[in-house]
Specification:
It is a single chain. By secondary structure, the protein is an alpha+beta fold. It has one domain. The protein is built from two helices and four strands. It has a four-stranded antiparallel sheet with strand order 1-2-3-4, with no helix packed on it. 4% of the residues are buried.
């Protein structure tokens, strides 16, 4: 999504935030600095025309907001998918780490078993040697 046109309209407009002020004479749309952005006098109608960049911002607001919401939903979808994928990868990582730990334990046990077998084979060979001496 190209955010530059929206950003340009926002930067060209009177600084906000804006606020509506209503009284018995009409309504005033004021900026944060209290300067009027637009005045509507109930007796005279529109008595101060809005500044063109402000009009442009106001006119594009519905489509800009809709586009920004659509982009936000798209990004949220990516975030949700990434979160789901991360959870799957975490589960797979944990499972693999546990399997690796189990394989390491088995490997260490097999080394110990092999050591016992080598010792047993050595004892058997020693016994054979003893038997050969008596025969």
């Amino acid at each position: 999504m190209d955010l530059d046109p929206i950003r340009d309209r926002l930067e060209a407009a009177t600084d906000g935030p804006w606020a509506w002020c209503n009284d018995s004479y009409g309504s005033v749309l004021r900026s944060a600095g209290l300067s009027p952005v637009c005045i509507y006098d109930t007796r005279q109608g529109l008595s101060q025309r809005p500044i063109v960049p402000d009009c442009d911002l106001i006119a594009h607001s519905p489509t800009d907001i809709a586009a920004l919401l659509e982009e936000l939903e798209r990004v949220q979808g990516f975030y949700e998918q990434a979160s789901t994928d991360a959870a799957k990868y975490q589960t797979a990582y944990t499972r693999t780490a546990n399997e690796l730990k189990e394989l390491r334990t088995r490997y260490e046990q097999s080394l110990a078993d092999n050591e016992h077998l080598v010792e047993a084979a050595q004892r058997a060979e020693d016994k054979l040697d003893e038997l050969r001496e008596f025969s």
